Amino acid sequence: MVTGASSGIGAATARRLAEAGFHVFLAARRVDRIEALASEIGGTAVATDVTSTDSVAALAAAVGPRLDVLVNNAGGAFGSSSVAEAEAEDWRQMYEVNVIGLMQVTRALLPALLASGAGAIVNVGSTAGRIAYEGGAGYTAAKHGTQVVTETLRLELWDQPVRVMEIAPGMVKTDEFALVRFGGDADKAAAVYQGVEEPLVADDIADAIAWMVTRPAHVNIDSLVIKPRAQAAQHKVHRVTD
Ligand SMILES: NC(=O)c1ccc[n+]([C@@H]2O[C@H](COP(=O)([O-])OP(=O)(O)OC[C@H]3O[C@@H](n4cnc5c(N)ncnc54)[C@H](OP(=O)(O)O)[C@@H]3O)[C@@H](O)[C@H]2O)c1
What we know:
alpha/beta; Rossmann fold; 8 helices; binds NADP nicotinamide-adenine-dinucleotide phosphate; oxidoreductase; SDR_fam; NAD(P)-bd_dom_sf; Sc_DH/Rdtase_CS
């Protein structure tokens, strides 16, 4: 199961997992996109809004009694205001999708993951869940939430046959992430990656997720921080300007 499989990291992960031999369930709101990808990779599309309890219940019903892998990837950043000028609705939405949505999907699919006997959960966090940066507080708070929920779940499931892992990417150049964050402003979105000759791309993260879930069942990759070589730290990015 890959949530947020309609674009970017989620779509690339669905492809990678299908290549690895999994039957992939693809969840997202844009059903046309997940249906197209599902037919390409032989998977199953399930229209889902992870923030809706009813929608997530329908997702669990579609999956059935057994699930081997859950990739909680649906998420994103909305806005980049300072705390002084924060939009409460943006903050609510970020918490809804990155934390509550992840919880709802996990809660609903946990019985099926346990029934697998060797379940694996990968939560897609972010380096934003490790640090702070100006204008990022709504997103960094939400992604710190993703990290802490992951750690808590691992403690709670310590005697159960399910791995609980997190991947925390730095700068990944996907088609929509920055565009969504800046409300469709293409110039602002392009500026994020300006001069970075080789940012990570969605498939780099998908490759890492596929590696994590295909380790033997006793190997738990607690946390994998993954950044482009050009990003030594959140604020220290090598950009080539002419
Ligand atoms: N790009 C980066 O630099 C970066 C870095 C670190 C972490 N991340 C994290 O990686 C994940 C994927 O990011 P991306 O770069 O691939 O961005 P993206 O292309 O914008 O993908 C976001 C995905 O989440 C889905 N989604 C959003 N809200 C949803 C909801 N309520 N219910 C179901 N699905 C929902 C979207 O699908 P629909 O709109 O069709 O529902 C879309 O498929 C996110 O969790 C993001 O925070 C990204």
